[in-house]
Design brief:
Blueprint: H1 2-12, H2 14-21, H3 25-56, E1 71-75, E2 91-96, H4 102-111, E3 116-122, E4 136-142, H5 151-161, E5 162-173, H6 181-196, H7 206-212, E6 217-224, E7 234-241
Parallel strand pairs: 1-2, 1-4, 2-3, 4-5
Antiparallel strand pairs: 5-7, 6-7
Transmembrane segments: 7-25
GO molecular function: S-adenosylmethionine-dependent methyltransferase activity
Keywords: Membrane, Transmembrane, Transmembrane helix
Length: 242
């Protein structure tokens, strides 16, 4: 039944599959569709997850470095929807593999002038070579680990750039319980969803990757963030300390 429903969904999305075959969809998606879609869906997701983010980032000031400043790197910054939760004076380095979020990013920078913006890096989470080892106090990653090519490589880079005692903050959608209807629909939607939404994977069990990474302390909470007609309700939220 999963395979039949996948085929039906692919049939409905055949224009996108055709554009992908012709090599047109990916550049259009990265430059136009995904930035537009992500900004729209971020507004809805933000309303649903705001309390969770407020609680998540509440202790960010505790990870200030010896100088008293908080140096923060955000992986997959997108349009900057997390800026509002960072403490005043925080020095933020933005990074994203997709450089086409500038309009929304500039708008959120203007809204959040309590922060110091250091630089914007075009970089994948798996390759942060532009960031020196042990140079940041905190790394933030929200709704990004679903799309990276390698979760384990990304977490290794996170640990490399963090100073000892620094923290990695995350909020990510994950696979549902295998016995649930949500997981069934995640399985059905998986191939088409991944194509349409720039490599986003619906069925990653990211808590396992985090548990396997070498954090000295790890706090993970499983939560529900329900979005209309979206198979991404199960989330994890928390932080790990290097």
């Amino acid at each position: 039944s999963v395979l039949l429903l996948r085929a039906g969904l692919a049939l409905l999305a055949w224009p996108i599959y055709l554009l992908s075959f012709l090599g047109i969809w990916e550049p259009f998606c990265r430059k136009v569709f995904f930035p537009f879609f992500l900004e729209k869906i971020s507004g809805v997701h933000e309303k649903k997850s705001k309390k969770h983010k407020q609680e998540l980032f509440r202790n960010l000031p505790d990870f200030r470095g010896p100088s008293g400043e908080l140096r923060l790197l955000e992986i997959g910054t997108g349009s900057g929807s997390n800026f509002q939760f960072y403490p005043p004076g925080c020095r933020v380095t933005c990074s994203d593999i997709n450089p086409n979020f500038q309009e929304g990013l500039s708008r959120n920078m203007k809204k959040n002038q309590h922060l110091h913006y250091e630089q914007f890096l075009v970089a994948a989470g798996e390759d942060l070579r532009q960031v020196p080892s042990g140079s940041v106090d905190a790394v933030v990653c929200t709704l990004v680990l679903c799309s990276v090519h390698s979760v384990s490589s990304t977490l290794r880079e996170v640990l490399r750039v963090l100073r000892p005692g620094g923290a990695f903050y995350f909020l990510e959608h994950v696979a549902a319980e295998h016995s649930s209807w949500m997981y069934f629909w995640q399985q059905v939607c998986y191939p088409t969803w991944k194509l349409v939404f720039a490599g986003c994977c619906l069925t990653r069990e990211l808590w396992k990757n985090l548990e396997e990474a070498k954090f000295s302390e790890l706090k993970i909470q499983h939560i529900s963030v329900a979005l209309p007609w979206m198979p991404i309700e199960p989330h994890i939220v928390g932080y790990g300390v290097k």
